[in-house]
Amino acid sequence: MSVKVVTSDLEPLLNTFEEYLRELVRSDVEFIRLIEDDLVTAGGKRVRPQLAFLASRALGGVPYEMELALAVELLHSTTLLHDDLVDDAETRRGHVAAFRKYGNAVSVLAGDYLLSRLLYLLSITGRMELVYMFSEVARELAESEVLQFQIAALGDYSFEAYERIITGKTASLMRLACEGAAVLGNAPSEWRQALADFGLFYGQAFQMRDDYLDLMGTPETLGKPIGGDVREGKLTAITLRLLDIYPQETLEILHRRGADPEDIEILRKLAVAAGVDREVVQSIQGRIDRAVAALSALPPSPSREALEVLAKREASRLT
Amino acid sequence: MSVKVVTSDLEPLLNTFEEYLRELVRSDVEFIRLIEDDLVTAGGKRVRPQLAFLASRALGGVPYEMELALAVELLHSTTLLHDDLVDDAETRRGHVAAFRKYGNAVSVLAGDYLLSRLLYLLSITGRMELVYMFSEVARELAESEVLQFQIAALGDYSFEAYERIITGKTASLMRLACEGAAVLGNAPSEWRQALADFGLFYGQAFQMRDDYLDLMGTPETLGKPIGGDVREGKLTAITLRLLDIYPQETLEILHRRGADPEDIEILRKLAVAAGVDREVVQSIQGRIDRAVAALSALPPSPSREALEVLAKREASRLT
Q1: Which of A108, A234, B138, B256 is deepest in the core (most CB within 10 A)?
Q2: Taking the domain B10-313, which CATH number applies?
Q3: What residues in A contact B128, CB-CB < 8 Å?
């Protein structure tokens, strides 16, 4: 399994992470084991665990960093399992979405099983504040996912809603991965704030980059057809700006959810013609800058640098 | 909303419960609000909160009894929301299942939202042991639901699996409702054990009674067509015994999932002819007896009596 780590120092930690994860999610119920095996071996980039580890190390190491890393990844994995269903995604991480193999039912329940393991991890840390923080992030996650669905159904598009969605479905959990380390380490409040801000802005940049690539990327690097968000009725920064500039044309395409073969290409061309693609790239860069700026409140360290590298990557990430 | 309470002393508590629940699950996201409104107003019998309150009162009252009652009900409600999908249930509590109105996606996510509120409640209690206990019960719930699905898919029926399923999907949560009160009240270990045993055996009797009524009840009292379990490939104590006595006939009906119009009636007649219905009623009575016996370790009180009444009702419950 290939994990693209930001620093080689993380390799041993991430290997332990994989072993612990495998043990944690093991069940004697065969259908659960099949799905979890899929999930564990599928791997993914483990971005959230890396954030937790780097935040911990930037503070000199905190207790229960492993449990934090696992807990944030489990919450993320659950949303993938519950989202495979939601999104009707053809592929996820290059694998056939779990639900196509075993049915929606088992997919949802396997997600619930992961949440039970998340609760277990939290109980190990002994930190009630962390339980509270996870409750808030889990709420934001569910609310923003439903909001995204609601907007797709009702078509009431706004930048405000988009901001809430990228924050709720991605940035809040990345903020938790970083801020959680500060809580576990009883870090001073300015360090805690710095890590929270870093996670939040990095997470927003991350989701905006994902959204950008979904329309402006290539199927080859993405590993899936482009235009998925348009087909699912999901708003992104690009389509929101196009709605301002070419309201009629854009609205028609969004309403028919990119059903015409040419639709996605038309949106791409409009985006380039109006300079909207560059605008969004700049907006992403703005979040990266804020994330990096937040780090300056932390003492210099290789881990702080690694967080900076991680954030700066978002400006040019292609997958 | 009519709540059939076991003692009028519970009425004010349950009214407060309903208000707190309504406030707890309120969201500014419209689609979540619609589902939660449905769930809150649909109400249900609130059996689990009643267990928590009575267990608390049998111990002279414990701190955070309300949060415990809400937490167990939220976990239950989540499984209903995730189960509507799983079971493809036509009706649930007499309402149109949530997912038929808003789609599977929102149903699953609204369940996740409830779980976030459960985490919040746990953080309020400040008791890590309770977080751990919820993690174990949530695990049992997910595992037994998947096991039920797996058995339906593979057809490997056994009494052992049935025991695990009724315990995991129902009894473990009822045990938690009772034992959780003992934990919150720092009760002596024999009282804690008594409440845990009561919840467990009561819960098993409860689920077995549900299963019994699903085949032997009437559509009028049940409020839904009988034979649903057979159509979903779910085993019950009755069909398991019929598999022993009339293997070929029963297996054929189970394999075609009661698709013939006469199938359900045939199973009912076989059950009566072989005395299997009475056997199962006796088995339920056995669990009730064990539940009631467990209570004797507790000091006598009106709440202990109310728990006894609740358990004894299972022998003749019709809805």
Answers
A1: A108
A2: 1.10.600.10
A3: 123, 126, 128
